[in-house]
Design a protein that fits this description.
With 190 residues, the protein is an alpha+beta fold. 34% of the residues lie in helices and 26% in strands.
């Protein structure tokens, strides 16, 4: 038996693909076919989630077992027999971007046809990864950097006045530790 799935982005961009895959194939084989079809880099992380019609994520099946099983151990037939008709295929974890996959039926295998295969589609797939603007440092990051610079400067001046030995290194670390609390409390009062 051959299962048929429809994959979309869930947006109104017109992109979709329809796949046929053997019932005894694993999620990993499905993953590999999707990667090849949309020309994604296989070195990137990806995971399937079981889902419902409302797109709520449930069980996760990643490339490596994260607690619920790995892709290569989960048979499509087992999912369909358990009434799992929806999957979410996350391909960009940093930006939470996914494909929505719906089971749309089953057909008899066509003699001499190779599966999995893409049987229909429209539109260009989204880029696998997107560039995000560099996040501006938070004000607290600047304050911490200033505190660290002041501490290093003061400790360096004190150590420059003395000859280096292990006792001075301990003194330097003590100076930094003592001033951490005082300077942070002064900054928070501002």
């Amino acid at each position: 038996m051959i299962y048929r799935f429809k994959m979309t982005t869930g947006r109104k961009d017109g992109f979709f693909r329809e796949y046929e895959i053997e019932q005894n194939d694993t999620l990993y084989e499905f993953h590999r076919h999707i990667q090849d079809d949309v020309d994604f880099d296989e070195a990137q992380m990806a995971a399937f989630y079981t889902s419902d019609a409302n797109r709520n994520k449930h069980t996760q099946y990643a490339l490596f077992d994260m607690g619920d099983g790995a892709m290569d151990t989960i048979m499509l037939e087992d999912l369909i027999n358990n009434k799992i008709n929806y999957l979410i295929y996350t391909f960009d974890f940093f930006n939470n971007r996914s494909f929505l996959i719906e089971f749309i039926g089953e057909i008899d295998a066509i003699c001499r046809e190779r599966y999995p295969r893409t049987v229909d589609g429209k539109g260009n797939p989204p880029d696998q990864l997107i560039d995000r603007p560099v996040q501006e440092p938070l004000p607290i990051d600047d304050e911490i950097a200033n505190i660290n610079n002041k501490k290093k400067s003061k400790a360096s001046k004190e150590l420059a006045e003395e000859e280096y030995d292990e006792d001075n290194e301990e003194k330097y670390n003590d100076i930094l530790d003592d001033e951490d609390l005082g300077m942070l409390s002064e900054t928070n009062e501002v």
